Automatic annotation (TrEMBL):
GO terms for molecular function: metal ion binding; peptide deformylase activity. Belongs to the polypeptide deformylase family. Fe cation binds at residues 101, 143, 147. This is Peptide deformylase. The keyword DNA-binding does not apply. It comes from Methylomonas lenta. Binds 1 Fe(2+) ion. GO terms for biological process: translation.
């Protein structure tokens, strides 16, 4: 990865492909990609990012819920790199809330997501890990996990009326 790495935008073919499992945890490119994902996510005020957003077809996501300009009400949690993640639903309740995406700038939408999950993944050293996520961090995980399946959050919207311009979104949350 170079310093000129950019986040792919909606319409890029790589965003619509299923990502491959990571099998080589010693690969230099793998660790460089994780570092690049982290820095781009932070620079972009993101609360999560997935490898396909940088054109890398690997099952790697970072979940990093924290208050930002884009998500001022987000809860604080340290960034977690998740490789080859999967999950079980702990709470079948679907909660609609606002989402945006670094690959879909300028738009926000109300997206239904499960409230609580049990997540299993490998860390960057290949060690099996588990955690439970709920509310906003669970939402971020599901959003990033979708990228590994070739989906974007707009694919989950129930009606086009739930999609708004980001300028309108900021008016709504300021009210």
């Amino acid at each position: 990865m170079t310093e000129k790495t950019e986040i792919l935008q909606l319409g890029a073919d790589a965003l619509r492909q299923q990502a491959r499992r990571v099998d080589d945890f010693n690969c230099v490119k793998f660790h460089q990609l994780i570092a690049t994902l982290s820095s781009i996510m932070l620079e972009s005020n993101g609360v999560g990012i997935a490898a396909p957003q940088l054109g890398a077809s690997w099952q790697i996501i970072i979940v990093a819920s924290r208050p930002t300009l884009r998500y001022p009400q987000a809860v604080e949690m340290p960034p977690v790199v998740m490789v080859n993640p999967h999950y079980k639903i702990l709470d079948e309740s679907l909660i609609k809330d606002w989402e945006g995406c670094l690959s879909v700038p300028g738009i926000r939408a109300l997206v239904p997501r499960y409230r609580a999950l049990h997540v299993s993944y490998q860390n960057p050293q290949g060690v099996a890990c588990q955690m439970q996520l709920q509310d906003f961090p669970a939402r971020v995980f599901q959003h990033e996990f979708d990228h590994l399946q070739g989906l974007v959050y707009l694919d989950r919207v129930e009606t086009n009326r739930d999609i708004v311009a980001e300028t309108e979104f900021f008016k709504r949350i300021a009210a």
